[in-house]
Fold:
Amino acid sequence: MTETINLANKIEKQLPAELVNFMQVAGEVAQSRGQSLYLVGGVVRDLLLGRANFDLDLVVEGNAIELAQQLIEIKQGKITTHPRFGTAKLQWNKWSVDLATARSETYVKPGALPRVKPSSLNSDLFRRDFTINTMAIHLNPGQYGELIDPHEGIADLEHKLIRVLHEKSFTDDATRIWRGLRYEQRLNFQLETNTLQLLKRDVTMLDTISSDRIRYEMECVLQEERPEKVFRRAGELNVLQSLDPALKGNGWLAEKFKLARQLTSPNLPPFGLYLSLLAYRLTEEESEHLISRLRLSKSVTQTLRDTMAIKTQLQALADPVLNPSGIYRLLHGYLPSAITANSLAGDSNVACQHIQLFLNKYRYVKPVLNGNDLIEMGIAPGPRIKEILQLLHEARLDGKVTTKQDEEELVEGVGKGRGKSPSKGRIKRGAAPFNPLTK
Ligand code: ATP
Ligand code: MG
Structure:
């Protein structure tokens, strides 16, 4: 008989007192309802590894929603319930806890969402992805802190192995392939030999996964501390290529991801920036394929398209004598993440410097005079106003005007320059004294 491991001390040490107290109370309430309550999943794994994780997932053998309703009476907060799934979320200022009714799942078709029905803790653990995620801790008084480990998760933690529970795991749900790579790389573990074979066998099952679910997996990968490690491994195992055959997860990507993080630190780079770097070396067609495979949001799609568009301008941007208004013309109107992606990924130093100048300086430059000022100065309302404002803007950028007075003189000068115009101050269509591109 194996001895019982009790993790009450670890819970006490590693989790915030408020959450520990909540779990004890929750265990007592469940007991009084004749139910068993458990802490499950990632937090149990991380407690054993000594890694910080305060995302509590509780599973109850019985009705989770009723239990949650009773608990929120005791510790006042917000409750959200999902009767269809038998789950509830409790939220307080600082913390949130998920409660679920223990359930079993059957997969009718690979990749489709499973059929679920209420069940025992053991069935609930059996539907999970990897042994290290299938441990639970009893929370009822009397058994509080006892570890339940039906699939030898603790041994796999010790041996640093990622192991599926059965050989249909990746066929049932191929998102587990990405999940497996994430855990492997995050924890510096290894896919256990048979799991690795199954993964290789089932890589094509990734095609059964909907765009929304694959995109979610990408979001999770890109939340990791070092997503480049996951992509490198995914590249080795042909997992990355299932997104698009031309994608590469090599050292180039690692270098660019690191630069992106340095730039946005202490925040993580936004999803669109990371993804633009991942897609950077794709052709436009391949990038469109990725956009539709991941069914990207409008704004992320735009970031990728802008990235590709700017890429085609890099040669022009690499011209060392390009003046500020010229740089502005080439870059304005594109999303900042796409511009940043090019500054990180482009291979011309000059272009990169020009992009930096745009991002840090030129994009904020504005003339002092506005349309109303021009009208007051005698310029007739109409498209000419826009042209003159653009002229002023470019003169500002290029340092040809630096004060309001300079701007006024320029407006007057331009007016006089076209002085034969019938109405005073009018400027002829097509006038463009400062054209940086034809310098
Ligand atoms: P993380 O630290 O990445 O949040 P986690 O283990 O908490 O890791 P979640 O994605 O939050 O992972 O999911 C919680 C638990 O639900 C997992 O530990 C796992 O047991 C189970 N799980 C999640 N997704 C799947 C899946 N696709 N197939 C099987 N089990 C899953
Ligand atoms: Mg989690």
